[in-house]
C-alpha cells in the first residue's frame, strides 16, 4: 500500500505557532488507546541534565499514593491513583569515538517534525552536536500501532555531517520511574508517582522486562526486538552484562553523509495482576513476542496506517473554507482516536495517554464530551468504553454501600480502577452527576445504535443502579408548600461552586436517569431482567414519582433556570474587571473566594440546555445564555464548545463561531497554556459536538433524528458521516442546502428543519434546501 501524504493531514513543525519543547512533547505524542508515548529528546533517557517530560503511559497501569489529609474523616479516599510514567521507548544512547550521550551533554536541536495523521507516523529530524563539535542528523520515525494495540515501533537513522568515526548505538531501557525535569505548581498536574520495580525476565535473546507496582499490585511485561530484516547492516546485537544492562547495540564505522538505520519493535503487554504476571511471565513474553517476530517496522507501520485510513474514511469532518479550523479539528479527532481504551477495562483519561495530569483519571469527560463522537462514528469502540462502566458497576455499588446508602451505585468522580480517587471531595466526589452522565451516555449510545442486546445485558443495569442512587441520596421535601424530590449537597459541573442544594443540571440529569429506569422497566416488564435485578413495581412507582416531582429551580420573572437553589443570593462577579493575570481563577484564589460569587468555571446550567434541546423554548435558552455567559470564565477547557452550541441555537452566530474556533484550537494553539501537561481530551470531543450539534444542529431524541444547520458564514460546507441504527449516512451541509447520502444500511428517515427526508438503498441521495 502506498499512502499519498496529504498536506491537510500534517502537523508540521514549521507551521506551528508555538515551539516550546514541552508543548511539542505533547503535540507530537503517538498513541493507540493502550499506550501513549510523549515526544521527547531521544537522548534524554533518565538523565536529569536534559529538561523534558518524556514517558510511556499504558492505559490502566497505575499505582496508589497515600493521600494525606489534615483531618481525615471516614470514607475519605485513602489513596490516590496515578498513572505510571514508564521509561521512554524513544531513548537511545549514542557513542562517537570517546564521546557518550549518556555522560556528555549532546546538544539536540529540532530541525523538523511532522505528524502525519493519515498514517499515524511521526517523522522527525534532529541535528545533534557533541561537546567536541561532531555533528550528525538523527532521523526518527515512530508510531503506535492501531492494528496491534500492543505494538510501538521506532526507527533511527544516523547521518554524520562532519566526521568519519566509529559510532556505537546502544538501546537499553533498564530504569524505572522515568525522571522528568519539570517544575509545576499547578494543582491539575499530578506531582506524585507510583512505586514500581523492574525485573529482567530471562535471557531469551531479547530484552524482556516485568514491571510491577508496589501498591496496586499490577504487572506489565515489555519486550522489544531489533532489526528491519534478518541481516541488518550494520548488525544489531543483543547483549546482557553483569550490571543488568541488557539491550541491543551496534558498532560501525560511520562516514560523513552515510546513513545507517536501526529499527525496533516494542511489544507492550496488557495489565495483569502482579501474581499472574510473575507466575506466567514466560508465557506472556512469548505471546507478546508473536506480535513482533517475523515482521518489520515497515509492515507494521503499513498495517497500522491502513486502520488509520479506515478511521478517516468514517470519522473525518471536512470543512470547506477554514483551513486552520480544519487542521485543528482533524488533530482533535486524531488525538481522540489515539486516546480511547479499547479493551473494556479502560476508558479515556482526561489527558489522553499524553501525560499524568489529573493522575491519568477518567471523568465524566468520556461520557458527556467524547462518547457522542464515538457512538456516532465508531459504535463498537463506544460500546467498549461503556463496558468499562459496566465492569466497574460492582465497585460503584460497593462504594454506595460503604458510603451508607442502602441501594444503588455510586460511580467515582475520578478513577482508573473504578474506586474513587478524588482527594478534594468538594469539587470531586460530590460531583454525583457522574452517575446520571453515565446513564445518559448509555441511553445516547442505544438511541444512536439501537443495540438492544447491550441495553438488556448491561445498559439497563447501569441505568437502574444509578437511578437507585438518586432515590437514596435525594429525598421528598416540601418547598413553598409543594411536594418535591430534592437532591441536596452536591457539586454540579461548575467547579467554582461546591456542595450546593438542587443543582439544576444534576437534578435534570437525575430526573432523566430515573425516567429511563422507569421507561425500560415498563418495556421489559415481561423479561427476566427485572426479577434478576430485584426490581419491584413499588420501586418503579417511587422512581416515577421522584422524577415527576423533581425540583428544578427556576426564576419565572427572569425566565431562567437557576444553577442551584440559593444561587441568586450571591453577588455577581464582574469578570471583566478581574485582572487577566488572575485567570484561571482556581490558581489564584482560595475556593471559598469563588464559591461565594456568581461565577462559573464552565458551562453548568447551559449543559442542561444543550443535552435536552427539545421542549426548551428558545426564549428560555436565550435568557439562560444571557444570564450565565457573562459570569463564565471558561477556565475549564470543556466550556467554550458548549457555549458555541448554545450561541448557535439562540442565533448568536458570531459568538458561536468565536467560541468554537477557540475551543477547537485548545491544544494545537495551546490556548489554556497547559498543553505541555497533556492534551485536553474532553475538549477535543466537545469540539466535534460543536460542529455536529452546533453548526449542523443535529438533535436525536430516539423518535426523531433532525438537523437544523446554521453554517458559519465563512464556511462553504461541512461534510461528515454518522452511523445511525446500522446505517451510515454522509451529510454535506452548504449554506442553504443539505445533501444526505446513504453509504450503507437499509435506509433512514431524517428531518431537516421539520421537512421529512428518507434515504434508502434505491434512493440513496437526497437534497434538501433550507
Ligand atoms: O471533568 C473535568 C471537570 O469538569 C473540570 N475540571 C477538570 C476535569 C477533567 O477534565
TrEMBL record:
Residues involved in substrate binding: 364-365, 601-602
Listed InterPro entries: 6-hairpin_glycosidase_sf (IPR008928), 6hp_glycosidase-like_sf (IPR012341), Gal_mutarotase_sf_dom (IPR011013), GH65_N (IPR037018), Glyco_hydro_65_C (IPR005194), Glyco_hydro_65_M (IPR005195), Glyco_hydro_65_N (IPR005196), Malt_Pase/Glycosyl_Hdrlase (IPR017045)
GO molecular function, one term: carbohydrate binding
KW Protein transport (keyword) present: no
The Glycoside hydrolase family 65 C-terminal domain, residue ranges: 705-759
Residue ranges constituting the Glycoside hydrolase family 65 N-terminal domain according to the UniProt record: 24-180
Residues at the active site: 495
Matches recorded under Pfam families: Glyco_hydro_65C, Glyco_hydro_65m, Glyco_hydro_65N
Keywords for this protein: Glycosyltransferase, Transferase
All residue ranges annotated as the Glycoside hydrolase family 65 central catalytic domain in the record: 330-689
GO biological process terms held by the UniProt record: carbohydrate metabolic process
Secretion signal span: none
Family to which the UniProt record says this protein belongs: Belongs to the glycosyl hydrolase 65 family.
Protein name per UniProt: Maltose phosphorylase
Organism: Lentilactobacillus diolivorans DSM 14421
Lineage summary: Bacteria, Bacillati, Bacillota, Bacilli, Lactobacillales
Amino acid at each position: 500500500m502506498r499512502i499519498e501524504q496529504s498536506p491537510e493531514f500534517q502537523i508540521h513543525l514549521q507551521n506551528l505557532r508555538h515551539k516550546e519543547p514541552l508543548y511539542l512533547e505533547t503535540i507530537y505524542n503517538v498513541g493507540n488507546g493502550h499506550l501513549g508515548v510523549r515526544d521527547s529528546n531521544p537522548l534524554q533517557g533518565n538523565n536529569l541534565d536534559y529538561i523534558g517530560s518524556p514517558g510511556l503511559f499504558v492505559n490502566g497501569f497505575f499505582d496508589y499514593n497515600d493521600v494525606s489529609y489534615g483531618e481525615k474523616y471516614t470514607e475519605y479516599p485513602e489513596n490516590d491513583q496515578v498513572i505510571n510514567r514508564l521509561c521512554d521507548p524513544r531513548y537511545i544512547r549514542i557513542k562517537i569515538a570517546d564521546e557518550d550521550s549518556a555522560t556528555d551533554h549532546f546538544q539536540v536541536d529540532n530541525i523538523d517534525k511532522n505528524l502525519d495523521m493519515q498514517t499515524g507516523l511521526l517523522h522527525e529530524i534532529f541535528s545533534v552536536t557533541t561537546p567536541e563539535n561532531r555533528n550528525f542528523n538523527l532521523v526518527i520515525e515512530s508510531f503506535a500501532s492501531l492494528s496491534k494495540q500492543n505494538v510501538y515501533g521506532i526507527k533511527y537513522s544516523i547521518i554524520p555531517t562532519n566526521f568519519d568515526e566509529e559510532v556505537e548505538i546502544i538501546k537499553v531501557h533498564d530504569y524505572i520511574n522515568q525522571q522528568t525535569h519539570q517544575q509545576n505548581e499547578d494543582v491539575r498536574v499530578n506531582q506524585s508517582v507510583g512505586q514500581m520495580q523492574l525485573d529482567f525476565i530471562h535471557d531469551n535473546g531479547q530484552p524482556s522486562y516485568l514491571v510491577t507496582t508496589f501498591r496496586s499490585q499490577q504487572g506489565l511485561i515489555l519486550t522489544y526486538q531489533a532489526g528491519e530484516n534478518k541481516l541488518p547492516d550494520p548488525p544489531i546485537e543483543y547483549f546482557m552484562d553483569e550490571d543488568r544492562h541488557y539491550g541491543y547495540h551496534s558498532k560501525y564505522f560511520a562516514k560523513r553523509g552515510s546513513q545507517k538505520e536501526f529499527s525496533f519493535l516494542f511489544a507492550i503487554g496488557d495489565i495483569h495482576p502482579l501474581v499472574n504476571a510473575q507466575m506466567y511471565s514466560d508465557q506472556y513474553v512469548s505471546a507478546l513476542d508473536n506480535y513482533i517476530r517475523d515482521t518489520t517496522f515497515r509492515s507494521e507501520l503499513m498495517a497500522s496506517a491502513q486502520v488509520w485510513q479506515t478511521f478517516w474514511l468514517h470519522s473525518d469532518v471536512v470543512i470547506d473554507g477554514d483551513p486552520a479550523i480544519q487542521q485543528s479539528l482533524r488533530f482533535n479527532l486524531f488525538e481522540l482516536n489515539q486516546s480511547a481504551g479499547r479493551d473494556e477495562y479502560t476508558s479515556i483519561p482526561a489527558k489522553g495517554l499524553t501525560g499524568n495530569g489529573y493522575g491519568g483519571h477518567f471523568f465524566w469527560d468520556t461520557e458527556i464530551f467524547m462518547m457522542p463522537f464515538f457512538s456516532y462514528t465508531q459504535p463498537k469502540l463506544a460500546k467498549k468504553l461503556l463496558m468499562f462502566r459496566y465492569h466497574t458497576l460492582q465497585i460503584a455499588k460497593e462504594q454506595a454501600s460503604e458510603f451508607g446508602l442502602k441501594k444503588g451505585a455510586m460511580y467515582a468522580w475520578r478513577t482508573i480502577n473504578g474506586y474513587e480517587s478524588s482527594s478534594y471531595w468538594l469539587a470531586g466526589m460530590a460531583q454525583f452527576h457522574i452517575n446520571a452522565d453515565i446513564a445518559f451516555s448509555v441511553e445516547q449510545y442505544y438511541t444512536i445504535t439501537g443495540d438492544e442486546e447491550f441495553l438488556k445485558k448491561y445498559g439497563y443495569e447501569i441505568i437502574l443502579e444509578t437511578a437507585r442512587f438518586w432515590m437514596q441520596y435525594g429525598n421528598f421535601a416540601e418547598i413553598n408548600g409543594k411536594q418535591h424530590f430534592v437532591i441536596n449537597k452536591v457539586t454540579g459541573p461548575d467547579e467554582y461552586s461546591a456542595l450546593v442544594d438542587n443543582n439544576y443540571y444534576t437534578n435534570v440529569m437525575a430526573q432523566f436517569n430515573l425516567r429511563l429506569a422507569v421507561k425500560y422497566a415498563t418495556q421489559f416488564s415481561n423479561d427476566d431482567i427485572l426479577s434478576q435485578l430485584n426490581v419491584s413495581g413499588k420501586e418503579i412507582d417511587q422512581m416515577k414519582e421522584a422524577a415527576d416531582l423533581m425540583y428544578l429551580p427556576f426564576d419565572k420573572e427572569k425566565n431562567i433556570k437557576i444553577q442551584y437553589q440559593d444561587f441568586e443570593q450571591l453577588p455577581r462577579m464582574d469578570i471583566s474587571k478581574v485582572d487577566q493575570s488572575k485567570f484561571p481563577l482556581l490558581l489564584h484564589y482560595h475556593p471559598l473566594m469563588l464559591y461565594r460569587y456568581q461565577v462559573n468555571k464552565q458551562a453548568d446550567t447551559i449543559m442542561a440546555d444543550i443535552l435536552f434541546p427539545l421542549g426548551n423554548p428558545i426564549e428560555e435558552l436565550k435568557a439562560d445564555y444571557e444570564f450565565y455567559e457573562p459570569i463564565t470564565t471558561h477556565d475549564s477547557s470543556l466550556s467554550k464548545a458548549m457555549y458555541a452550541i448554545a450561541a448557535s441555537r439562540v442565533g448568536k452566530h458570531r459568538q458561536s463561531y468565536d467560541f468554537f474556533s477557540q475551543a477547537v484550537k485548545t491544544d494545537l494553539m495551546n490556548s489554556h497554556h497547559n498543553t505541555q501537561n497533556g492534551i485536553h481530551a474532553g475538549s477535543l470531543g466537545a469540539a466535534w459536538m460543536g460542529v455536529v450539534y452546533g453548526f449542523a444542529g443535529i438533535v436525536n431524541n430516539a423518535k426523531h433524528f433532525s438537523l437544523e444547520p446554521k453554517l458559519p458564514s465563512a464556511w462553504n460546507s461541512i461534510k461528515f458521516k454518522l452511523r445511525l441504527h446500522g446505517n451510515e449516512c454522509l451529510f454535506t451541509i452548504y449554506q442553504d442546502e443539505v445533501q444526505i447520502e446513504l453509504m450503507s444500511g437499509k435506509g433512514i428517515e431524517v428531518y431537516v428543519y421539520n421537512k421529512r427526508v428518507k434515504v434508502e438503498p434505491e434512493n440513496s441521495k437526497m437534497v434538501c434546501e433550507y
